[in-house]
Amino acid sequence: MSQMIDEQLRRAFDALAEQIRTSVTDQLSLAAERVGATVASDRRDAVEHATRQTASTVEQEVVARLTQDFSRREEQLKESARVQWFDAGLNQARAEATAIQESHAAEMRGKDDLLAHLTAEAAEADLTARAAADRTTHLRSLVERLSRAMATLDAAPSLSQTLDALASSATPEAKRVALLLVRGDILRVWSQAGFGDDALPPSSDIRVEQAAVVSDAVRTGSVQRISGPASGRPAFAGAEISGAFVAVPLTMNGQVIAVLCGDEPHASDNGDLVAWTFEVLARHAARVLESHTALRLAQLGTHPWSSAPARAMSQ
């Protein structure tokens, strides 16, 4: 009986134990699920928290690294900019220095050019002054010679001595001088200096038509001049000789009675000065000859203009 009760109790206890075990298992499963869910949730929260912390840490590290890199890059850029600015300033300074040097060099060249120009002008002015002084001295000397020549002509007592005075007065004024008397179609050599006796023998005769520019002076009664080895040079002057040749007629009462010739190889004025000097001498000599002729004809009892001057001079 008691065994049956025990059996029943055991069965009831087993059934109750089974129920309890099942209930406990269910409760444990539910609790496990809840714990798992809680653990999972906590894990997710922990993971999320860890992730957020990690992300925050990484972000901070990245930000710090980027900030550091940016700062370093900024410093590099600044340094590069400073280098570029320094290079640019250095280049600008060099350019400015070069410009200053070029400007200084140009200024120095300008000063040198100005100095050279002023020196050249001073030299030219000095040469001009010397030339003017030389010309003044030459002209003063010429005036003095002409004054002495006129006095010599005025003092000549006869026609022949007047011609001699004319020839001697003209001799210093040219390299070669000749005084030729006109006798119709003939030119007679009265005197010459420098041409040589072979070219102009004393008292020799030259036909007027063969005397080139001298014949032009006889024909026109005016001063004739040629320059260089021109075809108009007379044969006795040498056609191949360069320089100026002048022929100045000596006129009395409108008649050419003689020709004063001069040859100046080194004349730079085409013989203008020689021609002018010869003309002054010839004009004064002509007045002196006219005076002598008038006096001579008066002494002969003849009117001074009734006879040819050449005939009176030949007596």
Summarize the structure in words.
With about 325 residues, the protein is of the alpha+beta class. About 65% of the residues lie in helices and about 15% in strands. A hairpin with a 2-residue loop joins β1 and β2. The radius of gyration is 69 Å and the shape is rod-shaped. The N and C termini lie far apart (about 230 Å). The relative contact order is 0.06.
Concise summary:
The chain is α+β, with helices and mostly antiparallel strands. It is built from five helices and six strands; from the N terminus they run H-H-E-E-E-H-E-E-E-H-H.
Full CATH superfamily name of the largest domain: GAF domain
User: What is the helix tally?
Assistant: 5
Number of domains: 2
- The CATH topology of the largest domain comes to Beta-Lactamase
Keywords for this entry:
Beta-Lactamase, 315 residues, 6 strands, 2 domains, rod-shaped, six-stranded antiparallel beta sheet, alpha+beta, 5 helices
What is the fold's blueprint, element by element?
Blueprint: H1 2-155, H2 159-170, E1 176-183, E2 186-193, E3 205-207, H3 213-220, E4 224-227, E5 244-252, E6 255-264, H4 272-299, H5 309-314
Antiparallel strand pairs: 1-2, 1-6, 2-3, 4-5, 5-6
